[in-house]
Amino acid sequence: MQFFKNLSYIIFVILFSVIFISTNVLASTVILPKTGQTNCWSVFGVSISCGGTGQDGEYQNGLPEEGERFTDNGNGTIYDRATNLTWQKCSRGQDTLKCSGISTTSNWASALTYCNTLNLAGARWRLPNRNELASLVDLSGVEPTLNNKAFPNTPAVYYWTSTTFQQVYTSAWVVNFGNGVVNFRVKSLPNYTRCVR
pTM to 2 decimals? Predict the structure, then answer.
């Protein structure tokens, strides 16, 4: 009987070690995109040297900027090599390739349906979750706070995510590409849409 107890304990220790090591290895390989900030500022908004500040501009952590992050596939889609996601190049309502025309807004349910039924580049699409859409935020500039070369004519306002706000189920998370803020809005309000796969 004691033999089986000892064996069970040894197996538990081995399994725990494997899970712990695997988790740490996976966690250390996750690379998020850089925010785009390269400058530092004082509490008074004055530009200062970044050395020793601990600010984002000092560390500039994230995906190394070797080459372009985004690739235009020439078919109305953009590949993001930082996240391995493929994005709809233009906002809902715009021309598929040139992003000309006026973007259209809709409520959350309509945005979900739009992405789930989007016929673009022969692929299945969906509304991005909160983390996926927020990964497009580029804080190197303002309005819009995303790569305007990859995603031209993007309105600098709220875009829907597929993620419901857990404290108020009638609201969903949105990303504002005017200032990069991630917030939540009531699902019945009109906001913009960009799909992902």
Answer: 0.76
The Cβ of residue 52 has, within 10 Å, a number of other Cβ atoms equal to: 8
Structure tokens at 74: 């020439």
- CB contact at 8 A, 52 and 58: yes
The number of folded domains in the chain is 3
- Please give the residue range of the domain that contains residue 46: 34-66
Give the model confidence (pLDDT) of 151-192 as tens digits: 999 999 999 999 999 999 999 999 999 999 999 999 999 999
39: which 2 tokens? 């400058």
Q: Please, are residues 70 and 80 in contact by the beta-carbon 8 Å criterion?
A: yes
The CATH number assigned to the domain holding 148 equals 3.10.100
In whole angstroms, what is the distance from residue 103 CA to residue 170 CA?
A: 24
Torsion region of 18: left, alpha or beta (phi above 0 gives left; psi -120 to 50 gives alpha):
alpha
Q: Pick from 131, 121, 114: which is nearest to 79 by CA?
A: 121
